[in-house]
Amino acid sequence: QWNLLCERSYISALVQSMYFVGYLFGSFLSGTVSDAFGRKITLTVSVALQAAAFIGASFVTSHIALIILIFFAGLSLASSIACQYTLIIEMIGPDHRTIAGIINELFWKAGWLLIILVAYFIRDWRTFMLIGAAPGLAILLFWKWIFESPRWLLTKGRLDEAHEILVNFGGKSKEQPLDKNSLRQLIERIRESQVKREGEVTKRHTQLDMVRTPKMRKFTLVMAINW
Q1: Residue 2 located in a structural domain
Q2: 68 vs 188, more confident
Q3: pTM of the predicted structure, to 2 decimals
Q4: I need a surface site. Which of 102, 115, 126, 152 has the fewest CB within 10 A?
């Protein structure tokens, strides 16, 4: 394909590299975007972009177009990974977050293993790209049942929406029915506490804080090596 031999052999490596460049950009941007627009909308846009990038890549006729689409595939994948993890953790209490994170990672690892199996039987890269779009399209089918993070809604002052989502989860049992009024009062107290803390905070954190101090630079380096 495209005579990727001799002096053009670098193009193959460039395509793979651009995927990880996109992944890097997605890792940095996803947090800011999801904080601004919400976990659900960011996740939805990310998986839609991912599916579109893979579908487009399967029909490209030039390596330049492929490089661009692979970049967006990496960007959207990083964004969707970060966003869905945040959405899960924000819905789980502190006592169960560790196990929830582990279970979430098990599904991702199972997916990576499945990709290896699919690649073994599907040798045509264009067909493989189309298959890569399937998970994103599947998630979009369940968009209606994906709920926004109540924690994020609280930070935006959207108390009614947060209350509605939490009410849908109900009480712990029939013997302990959910008291909607008490829940509403709790939500309002939490929001009041948030507003008070926001008024006291004068510094806004950015990605630069990851390398601002020696300790944070150490943590960032360890995480980078781990990934």
Answers
A1: no
A2: 68
A3: 0.80
A4: 102
Q: Residues 15, 50: one domain?
A: yes
Same-domain pairing of 100 and 170: no
The arithmetic mean of pLDDT across residues 171-178, rounded, is 65
Q: Are 105 and 211 contained in the same domain?
A: no
Token pair recorded at residue 139: 């998630």
109 and 58, same structural domain?
Answer: yes
pLDDT at 163 > cutoff 60: yes
**Lowest-pLDDT choice from 15-19, 53-57, 115-119, 179-183:** 179-183
CATH no. for residue 52?
A: 1.20.1250.20
pLDDT at 176: 67
Output 65-71 pairs: Cβ under 8 A, ≥24 positions apart. 66/15, 67/11, 67/14, 67/15, 67/18, 68/18, 70/15, 70/16, 70/18, 70/19, 70/22, 71/18, 71/19, 71/21, 71/22
Asked if residue 123 is part of any domain, the answer here is yes
How far apart (Å, rounded) are the C-alpha atoms in residues 6 and 214? Answer: 45
Helices (H) and strands (E) in the chain, counts: 9, 0
